[in-house]
Amino acid sequence: MARYNFKDIEPKWQAAWDQRGAFRVTEDVGRPKYYVLEMFPYPSGRLHVGHMRNYTIGDVLARFKRAQGFNVLHPMGWDAFGLPAENAARDNRVHPAKWTFENIATMRSQLKLMGLAYDWDREIATCAPEYYRHEQKFFLDFLNAGLAYRRESWVNWDPVENTVLANEQVIDGRGWRSGAPVERRLLNQWFLRITAFADELLEAIGRLDRWPDKVRLMQENWIGRSTGLRFRFTVEQSDGTPHSDVEVFSTRPDTLFGASFLALSPYHPLTARLAAESPSLQTFVEMCGRIGTSEEAIETAEKHGFDTGLVARHPLDSNRTVPVFVANFVLMEYGTGAIFGCPGHDQRDLDFARKYGLSVVPVVLPPDADAIGFTIGTEAYTGPGRMINSEFLNGLDVEAAKAAVCTRLEATGHGERIVQYRLRDWGVSRQRYWGCPVPVMYRADGTMVPVPEDQLPVLLPEDVDWDQPGNPLDTHPTWKFTTCPETGQPAVRETDTFDTFFESSWYFARFTSPHASARGFDRAAADYWLPVDQYIGGVEHAVLHLLYSRFFMRALKQCGYTDVEEPFAGLMTQGMVTHETFRDANGTWLYPEEVEERDGRLVKRRDERPVIVGRLEKMSKSKKNVVGLEQTVDTYGADTTRFMLLSDSPPDRDVEWSNAGIDGAWRFLNRVFRMVTESPIALPAVGTPCPEYLSEPAKTVRRQVHKTIVAITDDFQRFHLNKAVARVRELANALADLDGHADGAGWVLREGLETLVCLMAPMTPHVCEELWQALGHTDLLVDTPWPKPDVTLTAEERVTVAVQVNGKLRTTVSLPVDCDEANARTAAMNDPIVARTLQDRPIRKVIVVPNRIVNIVA
Questions:
Q1: What pTM did the predictor assign?
Q2: Strands 305-313 and 225-236, how do they pair?
Q3: Which of 561, 610, 542 is nearest to 582 (CA)?
């Protein structure tokens, strides 16, 4: 039997596409454009099959849209700055650029193995000076527009490495490399003013109707617009001597009579003043600093407090005071850095109050509860209700109580209603070498001076010393020393580099004109291609990368670069590729190729010792449950690998990689290959007109062919790629079962096979290109238009009609489309269920709604 020889066929067609320049594009205002983009990868080493799912999904869409006549931009590049390269440099004494570009070469060759329809002429690497010189110019423009600024900010500091640590590098309060207790320090940092666009970013989310609802909700929550009350507590010594005022912001002022404590951030100015006179409080603050700076770490840490001995006078009841604590869970970056705790109606506050023996007074009564005897147990009540234990608020509902408190405190000058955002300005400073240098310098008096545009790019030095701890740019003997362009006096360069999100926040625009030199991108090209019509990537980037990109486009618009505000019109977040995990008796993770089945059980291939099989998990190098890409392509071919990745599960859900699945995909492709190359039915020549007479079996198959065109076209539009896989299997079955003796069978089979090959081409392009030639075509399949269905063959010939008796659904009947009223009535009346329901009752009338309902009134 013929077999799909992918080792010869796949390189042949990849070379043909490359020679043809099939996927190179330019702007063409006479054609509709379609820009499809997968989130570009970090060049970390080698790809495995788990990495290939989103690239395959994007490639299917790009090829499909190209066949439909769109001018398709489908580029690829590399998010090439980042900490892993710097760590590799330290560990292996290799320059980050060498490590990065070697990885890029490896990963590029892997992607090319898969036959992906990229315009490789547009390839970019963000670590290249010709890329980052433009973002240095963007930064200077942001600085002039007031969108960039410098201020002190808290960071995680490793006192041994003498460097700032990212939140993920703080493990149990210690530096991930040194193991030293992490300190929290104030350092001058650069920020981008994303909060200036908070309302715009929030309002526009509602128009992103081709984004997943969960992602839109995550962005809304991250921006976190809330309306509340900012008001003051007067803080006193325990003897009543006035000490200071503390401002608080709350979205729940209705619960103020339930307050049992005031809590300050460890980094509140009042905390700093108190700690200067209290060694024990200073120790507590240092302990809080070891948690790290991330909000998630602070929220999940065990709640601790320090009683300052101060009290706060209640703003609505001057006869009441509450104790003042410093608490490790209060964020200085949100609100005012101080909160009032209402344990009855906030779980975190309740846990804290129980731990420190504070009062718990319920002030919101649930709708079905009795005020007499209502208490709070182990769970705070956070639902609706009416106010109790709240003096002038008693009996009001929550919203009315909020308004009443706001009105009272505004009238006395102790508070005001404000809008608050959870969103904070974007800190872009990183104290690392392998990043884009921030293009400013400082004179001896501390004055900041931007680097002149004609001196861009500020390049990284190549001769860096990895033996010293800290940022190599700080310790370099010459690089940071320069001359002020305004005074000619000595100056020192900024040694911070940009957060790598800076590069990924505009790369999609660079792809529109990657060789533009005067500006980061050509405006006409960007206006033609942007926004990206379909963006594809992991949901882990749902907040920061997408939000920063949305901000960046607005900032570029303000600086005159573009009129585009939203970078991504459509977004699809693909699921993960999962695989079983394996461990030996010692708990050591094993690669799948280290495991084999013998006598019905899994053992280590090397020594036949038992293997423990774990659950399905996302493919990851750390758990070794990865399947090598080259190994798979060498065994099965790129098309089989692609087909497997698209099968079984919708693209936005996880898919299991299994030997049975890849074997099944391989068998199917070989079956289709034989159907074309070893057809048992003689096929007419290419272009032969349809015979005047087709037998009924041939007509039935032909109708299925054209209905499949409609269905798979819709599947591709909706990202129902697993359904498209199932439909091509069904169509192949129908074509294989076609009776070769039926009149017109050969013509219908040719039409069916040509259609099958065209429909499969976006998913399995190499084998389909080969089969297109085998069917007698001389043109490339990649240049062949998408098949068009014959609408006369796709219309349904029968329809299912509901039958009601006295308005209640009793059954359904199958009728010819547009069946006349008399036949519809007869079919309904003859149905056995209807007969039993009527029981010889006289019929008053029968109402027929064509193709929909027959209603019998008895």
A1: 0.87
A2: antiparallel
A3: 610
